[in-house]
Amino acid sequence: MKLLVTRPAAQAAEWVQRLREHGVEAEALPLIGISPPHDVHAVQAAWGELAAHRLVMFVSPNAAEQFFALRPAGIAWPAETLAGSPGPGTTRTLRALGVPAEAIAEPAADAAQFDSESLWQQLKARDWRGASVLIVRGESGRDWLADTLRAQGAAVSFVTAYERGAPQLDAPAQALLRAALAAPRAQAWMFSSSESIAWLETLAPAADWREAAALATHPRIAQRAREAGFGTVLECRPALEAVVACLQSFET
């Protein structure tokens, strides 16, 4: 069974490569568009204040990539500032961008989910009273971690490092979508965001997904796929081995 990876283009390409190395027939069909923020100066200013923060939390690989893309020349990651990551994808991106491994806080490798709640399990033993925390994200997002840190006495601020928007499907992606609509049983959809499902509904408003299968990397996303009408929805952790195993269960 072919697996359609709906993450934004950069992450979709990485996932497709890694899945193919494990024998999975995977194709990228990005369903969220990513663009630079409207306020570039706010991101550059945030770089100048990094050392004042005890924690800088990156909500996704896109947050890390776009934030570092606007790094002013000559600024390195501060030695005393912790970089927060909700999962291995963001961690890999931060490492590739030069953040030392010892400066990164992330969920345990065997965490049931890779999200803010799992990251908090690694952070909650610290004293957050009076600490400054910056959350790097898109133009909006969940406030759970911010609310939790504030309840522990931290001062939390946000910076918008990128904008999310409609996907811009190239010719191969358009062909993949047409094929999926024509033969819904021939592939499974990998969803790592509820927003990607919403954009799929916009792109194919009349589609009947009752015979289609979806692989969701979080319970909230799985519920959104069921609401969209997918007949088969499986949940799995957003780890390569888990995705491969989950896909195999579709085929047996």
Description:
This protein has helices at 9-21, 40-48, 61-69, 88-96, 116-123, 144-151, 171-182, 194-203, 219-228, 240-251; strands at 2-5, 26-28, 33-35, 55-58, 82-84, 104-105, 132-137, 155-160, 163-165, 187-191, 213-216, 232-235. By secondary structure, it is α/β, with parallel strands linked by helices. The chain has two domains: 2-32 and 167-251, Rossmann fold, CATH 3.40.50.10090; 35-164, Rossmann fold, CATH 3.40.50. The strands form three sheets. Strands 2-1-10-11-12 form a five-stranded parallel β-sheet, sandwiched between helices. Helix 6 links the parallel strand 7 and strand 8. It is globular, with a radius of gyration of 19 Å.
| Average of pLDDT | 93
- What is the number of E strands? 12
- Tell me which CATH architecture of the largest domain applies here: 3-Layer(aba) Sandwich
How much of the sequence lies in strands comes to 15-25%
CATH topology of the largest domain: Rossmann fold
User: What order do the strands of the largest sheet run in, or round the barrel if closed?
Assistant: 2-1-10-11-12
Biggest sheet architecture: 5 strands, parallel
Which geometry do the CA atoms define?
A: globular
Using the coordinates above, name the CATH class of the largest domain: Alpha Beta
The helix count comes to: 10
Order of helices and strands: EHEEHEHEHEHEHEEHEHEHEH
Low-confidence sequence ranges: none
What is the SS-derived class? alpha/beta
Indicate the percent of residues in helices: 25-40%
Distance between the termini: 11 Å
Radius of gyration: 19 Å
Overall number of domains? 2
